[in-house]
Design brief:
Layout lengths: L12 H11 L10 E2 L10 E4 L4 E3 L8 E6 L6 H16 L8 E6 L7 H11 L3 E5 L2 H10 L4 E3 L10 E3 L3 E4 L5 E5 L5 H12 L2
Helix pairs in contact: 2-5
C-alpha cells in the first residue's frame, strides 16, 4: 500500500528564489527554452510503472525523455502540460523518429494506481508512460531535480489538492539533463529544443 499522503507546505519564498537562481545559472547556450546542462544530475529513479512493474532510468536509455511531476486529479496544470508536450512533439516532426518518451510521475500515490495512470496517459499519447512510488521515494526524487510537491488538507469526502512544480525536465538519450520546459515557453521553442536534443 502506498504511504498515505500527509500535509506538506510549499518551500518558503526565500528557498523558491534560491532554486530559481540556481537554475538560471550557466546551463548551456543556444536553447530556445532553458538549457540546464551541468546543473542537474543524470536521470535516475526507481518507480512502479502503470503496468505494475518496476521502472528504472536504465529502461529509458537510448531515447530522449521528458519528465513531468503531476497527478491525475490535477484540474489544469497537468492536462495543459501534457497537451503542450504533445503539440511540441508533433511540431518537432520526423526528426524525433518516434523515439521521444514522456514520463508522467505521479506525486499522488494514494490515489494514482497503475490502472488509473494507464487510463490517464492513454488519453494523451502512446509516448506517455505513467509511474509513481511511495511518498518518501518521491520526495527524494523531486529533491534530486529541485522540484516540489505538497498536499492540502482533505475535505469531508477525503479529497485533497496536490501542489506541484509545473516544469518539464528534458533528458537526452544517455540520461543527461539538457533542458527545462516552463509554462511560459512557446511550443515552437520546445519543438526546436526537442529536435536539438534528439540530434545528440
Amino acid at each position: 500500500m502506498p504511504e498515505h499522503p500527509r500535509k506538506r507546505r510549499w518551500p518558503g519564498p526565500a528557498l523558491a528564489v534560491m532554486m530559481a537562481a540556481l537554475l538560471s545559472a550557466c546551463g548551456g547556450s543556444g536553447y530556445q527554452t532553458k538549457g540546464i546542462e551541468g546543473l542537474l544530475p543524470d536521470l535516475a529513479f526507481r518507480l512502479t510503472s502503470e503496468t505494475g512493474e518496476t521502472l528504472t532510468a536504465a529502461d529509458l536509455r537510448g531515447a530522449p525523455t521528458v519528465v513531468f511531476f503531476g497527478f491525475t486529479h490535477c484540474p489544469d496544470v497537468c492536462p495543459t502540460a501534457m497537451a503542450r508536450i504533445a503539440a511540441a512533439t508533433e511540431a518537432a516532426g520526423e526528426s524525433l523518429d518516434g523515439d521521444l518518451q514522456v514520463l508522467f510521475v505521479s506525486v499522488d500515490p494514494g490515489r494514482d494506481t497503475p490502472q488509473r495512470l494507464a487510463d490517464y496517459t492513454d488519453f494523451f499519447s502512446d509516448r506517455v508512460t505513467g509511474a509513481t512510488a511511495p511518498v518518501e521515494r518521491l520526495r527524494e526524487l523531486t529533491k534530486r531535480y529541485r522540484a516540489t510537491f505538497g498536499y492540502g488538507e482533505p475535505n469531508e469526502f477525503g479529497d485533497y489538492n496536490v501542489s506541484h512544480s509545473s516544469a518539464m525536465y528534458v533528458f537526452d538519450a544517455e540520461g543527461h539533463a539538457r533542458a527545462l520546459f516552463r509554462p511560459s515557453d512557446s511550443v515552437t521553442g520546445m519543438a526546436a529544443d526537442l529536435r536539438r536534443i534528439a540530434r545528440g
